[in-house]
């Protein structure tokens, strides 16, 4: 690593080693390595994902990126391509809403999502590499996987033990996902 010669700021020396591996830089390196083009929508989508600690819906990303930058189908296709090169991971809510999150420079994990309030929490990762290798041995390429857990969170159990679970789901997250398949 190069010493922090260009930094006068006291924090400069500390942040220097990280600069090369900022999430956006890392993502762009991986996109280039995958022989994919770096486009304005792709950068905007990564920047949008970077603003969220957890998974976000495609529509939320589209809103943040802005309709002038690209349409919803483009967002979907970019995320699908990002998933293939493993810079995002896909997960689902109980109602089937598809979510994506950035997986750069971060320990792998899964999620548990509350069927009542939609709140999502991280769950410890367990490896399914063996399963993926087995599928590759069977001739599958570009193997990815989705693992999700669903339940009613402790606070929802206390607040409304007898409440109907499913109808409450659409509140915070856009439920109307278009039927777009790449
Ligand atoms: Zn809940």
Gist of the model:
The protein has helices spanning 12-19, 23-33, 40-50, 58-65, 72-84, 129-137, 154-159, and strands at 56-57, 88-92, 98-102, 109-114, 120-124, 148-151.
Structure notes:
This protein is of the alpha+beta class and 182 residues long. It is 36% helix and 15% strand. The strands form 2 sheets. A 3-stranded antiparallel β-sheet has the order 1-3-2. A hairpin with a 5-residue loop joins strand 2 (88-92) and strand 3. Helix 3 crosses helix 4 (58-65) and helix 4 (58-65) packs across helix 5 (72-84). The N and C termini lie far apart (41 Å). The structure holds zinc ion. The site of zinc ion has 7 residues, from helix 7. Residues 114, 116-117, 119, 153, 155-156 line the site of zinc ion.
Please specify the SSE layout and strand pairing.
Layout: H1 12-19, H2 23-33, H3 40-50, E1 56-57, H4 58-65, H5 72-84, E2 88-92, E3 98-102, E4 109-114, E5 120-124, H6 129-137, E6 148-151, H7 154-159
Parallel strand pairs: 4-6
Antiparallel strand pairs: 1-3, 2-3, 4-5
Zinc ion binds next to helix 7.
Top CATH class: Mainly Alpha
Poorly predicted spans: 1-19, 167-182
Small-molecule binders here are: zinc ion
Overall tally of structural domains:
1
| Main β sheet profile | 3 strands, antiparallel
Overall spatial form: globular
H-E order: HHHEHHEEEEHEH
Number of helices: 7
Corresponding CATH superfamily = Winged helix-like DNA-binding domain superfamily/Winged helix DNA-binding domain
Q: What is the terminal separation in angstroms?
A: 41 Å
Helix content: 25-40%
Question: What is the number of beta strands?
Answer: 6
User: What do the pLDDT scores average to?
Assistant: 79
Query: Going across the major beta sheet, what is the strand order?
Result: 1-3-2
User: How large, in whole angstroms, is the Cα Rg?
Assistant: 19 Å
CATH topology: Arc Repressor Mutant, subunit A
Second rung of CATH, namely the architecture: Orthogonal Bundle
**Percent in strands:** 5-15%
